[in-house]
Amino acid sequence: MAKVTIPIGPQHPALKEPECFIVTLDGERISHLDMRLGYNHRGIEKACEARTYVQDVYLIERVCGICSHSHSTCFVQAVEEIAGLQIPPRATYIRTLIAELERVHSHLLWLGVAGHEIGFDTLLMYTWRDREAVMDIFAALTGNRVNYGMNTLGGVRRDFTKEQLAEVLKVIDICEERTKYYIEVCTQEPTVINRLSGIGHLSHDDAMRLGTVGPTGRASAVDKDVRRDDPYLAYKDLSFKVILDNHNDVFGRAVVRVLELMESYKLIREIIAKMPDGPVTVKAPRKIPAGEAFSRYEAPRGEDSHYIRANGTDKPERVRVRAPTMANLQSVAKMLEDNNLADVPIAIAAIDPCFSCTDRMIGIRTGKGTGNSIRWDDLRNYGVKWYRKQGIDFTDLNRKLAKKQE
Amino acid sequence: MANEEAIKAELTGKFPFLADKIVIKRERRLFADVPQDRFREVFEHAARKMDFVHLCIITGLDDGDNLLFIYHMAKLDGTVLNLKTTAPKSNPAIKTITDIFPGGVIYERELVDLLGAKVEGLPPGKRYPLPDDWPPNQYPLRKDWKPEMLEGKDGRKEEVKNG
User: Fold this and answer.
1) pTM for the whole structure
2) Do residues A258 and A127 touch, judged by C-beta distance below 8 A?
3) ipTM above 0.90, yes or no
4) Under an 8 A CB cutoff, do B114 and A212 touch?
């Protein structure tokens, strides 16, 4: 039978983000997988060089929506290392607390997506409902569901009260109960086990060779976890287990993530119990002395690395970001070899990919397409006109509101 | 810091020309400048003989007349060796490391697209991360590159002005 090549993406119903997988099929079996990435390139690394360190903290936070705290922490700890800043212990603990809460909501999100990809949408509804509790606690603590804006050079921007921390514990109790149920679902439900077992096989040797990180690697018994190996924030003082599994497939990746949730709950309780008192920030210089630092951070998806070089001004010379998905993508081609075409969505989803963070550097559209761009004022006017056509006019209301404010 | 000192001693013992080129910045962080003609030996020794089994990233940067490449490699115990080497902008050629770390291919493609490095032995494949119609000889991470250099294409200038 002749081989058939099918492009999946950059826009495709099975994928949630723009990326293109070019699958060569022999019947239903995949014989080769090639990929084209870069559709989400936004120019962040170059943009960082033109902005001050403080502006960069916010820009870097927007590398990714889910791992926003991961990127901004990884960035600030590199800059703080160059500047020789010692941040107060309370700030360290607050950063760690947000980091673990982020892992909880990211893993719950993944479990839902995985459920969805195998047609088990009940699991999606359940996990995303529980994830909402974490998102709500984020909104209460930081003012935002994602992109928390907690980090600044020299510490964190908000302190938490005892009452707020008590609320966190309540949410964690609920999530822990629910997670026990998800562990049962993932490890005992025959449909789930049969659907996930043997899919996206990645042997331990291949995972090591390809530099796989995070839960994807740990499900192939790759014993890497930056929190333990290269301790940062408060992890040196905290106790937790690194979850390893040797199923080497999507099933193993699910098991690793649900068990990691339980470790995160333990960590959050320990962080809150040990939370030291004191200030949450020290004054950071505007200009950072010349120097360089390489910073690592265990994001929910795996190791995140930043390299920063400072040149003595208030703007960095070079900011290099490597998100975990970028390290894991190389293993996807290996995982999908000799799998069925129908397994593509779940096998790709199993690395918990995030293409926004992967393609973070330069994204300037040239040629076709830019003619359609619309300015903010034009967009607003267009909206006003559109509503007027529907018989809705806010002019009077706006005038009244303006008067009231006077 | 005994661990870091031991790594430094092993490297300088094996490669005497590195004697004053290795800096221990802090616990678990070593930086070393390696001349390009000896880079491959040092890199291979670190990866194969010294358990630096994980290539975190490759950073490329514009360093005036040269391009600077930093290979960040880690041991499983968390120690990171940052090996630096340079190549002149007039001929920014380096050799691929994908035979040792096949996962590094995407980092090398970035060096090609964004800094204009020539990576000898890079396996064929799709470019990353710039679009297919990106103009040749424009390398956005070089310091002399400005977004305005793409001007003249469908009102690009206007868009830059508006941020």
Assistant:
1) 0.88
2) no
3) yes
4) no
